[in-house]
Write a structure and sequence with these properties.
single chain, about 300 residues, alpha+beta, Barwin-like endoglucanases, Alpha-Beta Plaits, 6-stranded mixed barrel, 5 helices, 13 strands
Length: about 300
Amino acid sequence: MPSPFLVRLTRTVCIAALGGVLLSACAETKFVMATAKRLGDTNKSEGMYKVGKPYQVAGVWYYPEEDYDYDQTGVASWYGPNFHAKATANGEIYDQWAVTAAHKTLPMPSMVKVTNLDNGRVLTVRINDRGPFVAGRIIDLSRGAAQLLDIEKAGTANVRVQILAKESRVLAERAKAGQVELAEVDAPVTRDNVSSQPVASEPLDAPAPVEVVSVKPVQAQPVQARPVQIQPVSAARGIFIQAGAFSNSGNAERVRDTLSRLGSVQIQPIPVNGRDIFRVRLGPVSNSDEAGRLLAQVHEAGYAGARTIVVD
């Protein structure tokens, strides 16, 4: 009959072995879960390349196109909570904290430089959605982009939007080529799929004495998603509604006469390719809200191509 000492020793060895098995299984489970999470993140859709066909919203037609010379001024707004985690126009999942924006006609995705003409801030933004469909507005920023441009509290701002042709073409080619997936979507990760090797156990040395070192408190620094440039802001700035641009001065004068009931109308000749083009503009107006109301009236008068212009 075995001695009590051998019985206790056998029980201790068995318990230790069982504990090692459980710890090994637990560690392997955590590793598999972490691997699955990484593979799941890899499969996250970044959307497809899309220009789209002409479309109509609230009686106004929009004509999407690849315009790598795009450079316009107007009013910017932002959108966020009600659209967060929903699909954008090109199939991405909208993240209100990402530095993105919606545009009515530019390709998706494309890159634009947005300059806040009210404070001089400049930010590079990726277009991945359609909008805004409010009179007078030319771009709808994500909440994160609006914060970086200091637009969130005011809600709107006068901006200049310029497409970055080289960067936009690169984005377009990447989106057309698609993303390489490391694992099939919804494919389970099992123990058979994960290579694991036994780890040899070695005795640990006694811990070294801990030396106490005084550490000075570190001051937290604000983190910005992207660098924001600051440019001087011109004091001589005005907001106008441009009803159209005409090669014939008589046509410009007829438009001026038609719209004169809405306010001050100017005809501005500018040389283009050796000949004059006559721009018809109403204004200036004092703020973006007034510009929106005036633009809506110009649209109702039959000039659907009218748009807001911010002039330095």
